[in-house]
Amino acid sequence: MDHTPAHAATTPPAIEADSLSVRIHRKPILHDLGFAVPQGRVTGLLGPSGSGKSTLMRSIVGVQRLWKGSLTVLGRPAGAASLRHAIGYMTQEASIYRDLSVLDNVRYFGALHGRSAADAREAVAAVGLADLARRKASDLSGGQFSRVSLACALVGDPELLVLDEPTVGLDPVLRVDLWERFRALADGGATLLVSSHVMEEATRCDSLLLLREGRMLAQLTPDGLRERGGSSDLEQAFLGIIRADLERQAAGLPVPTKEHAA
Ligand SMILES: Nc1ncnc2c1ncn2[C@@H]1O[C@H](COP(=O)(O)OP(=O)(O)OP(=O)(O)O)[C@@H](O)[C@H]1O
């Protein structure tokens, strides 16, 4: 199904990177990335463990210092103070208050964005925690805990949602519910950047960014991935692209870093 909104071709990208490099403790982590995340769509950020997904997300939300290149988010440099209310960010390690209830956590984050108690209840329900709204966060399971964190990112109704592995540890039914919610948010105009290890989730995205060892292997659609990777199975297709990249490296050919497809 084509989820491309009619305005997508004419609107500027929500996120644009040009020759972006990041070092941590002088160690190069992201290498000369060039890509564009379209507005009002769901973009999946996929890559093996350690490929740099979280580092890239931290760069986008403005908590990671850039070394070289540029990173523009909603038309402003990443990290600009004015972006604070426009971005919802869910980290891998849930950052919520353990001594507050589920609802109070979400109300607190909602209040920072001027949202009402009703908005907080709605966000709690959206992540399937309505029955546990009064439970203290410290008494939740790991999966429930991370869902509170997701509700905190959703409650501000931000223009851009950056979600670092939001479906890890969730049962399949809730996983499907959440992807439907992400789709509805994008249909309403929000931009979502969602990282995942699970290639099956890539089918739910409009656009995919494939990272490996800090380099952008490709930016394409799920169909483009199947075609370029030579398999209808997305996992196999990703492996096909990695193999082709390794062969290119072994042959001493230049390594592509910039992708502006999809
Ligand atoms: N604070 C740090 N100090 C040193 N190296 C770091 C630091 N943070 C990240 N790295 C390194 O940067 C690389 C990318 O890490 P990152 O967490 O961005 O990957 P990831 O794709 O999100 O991995 P995962 O899927 O396992 O969460 C890894 O090699 C990691 O060891």
TrEMBL record:
Keyword ATP-binding: yes
One Pfam family here: ABC_tran
Gene Ontology MF terms: ATP binding; ATP hydrolysis activity
CDD domains: ABC_DR_subfamily_A
Domain (ABC transporter) ranges: 15-238
InterPro entries referenced in this protein's UniProt entry, alphabetically: AAA+_ATPase, ABC_transporter-like_ATP-bd, ABC_transporter-like_CS, P-loop_NTPase
UniProt key word ATP-binding: yes
Keyword terms, alphabetized: ATP-binding, Nucleotide-binding
Name of this chain's protein: ABC transporter ATP-binding protein
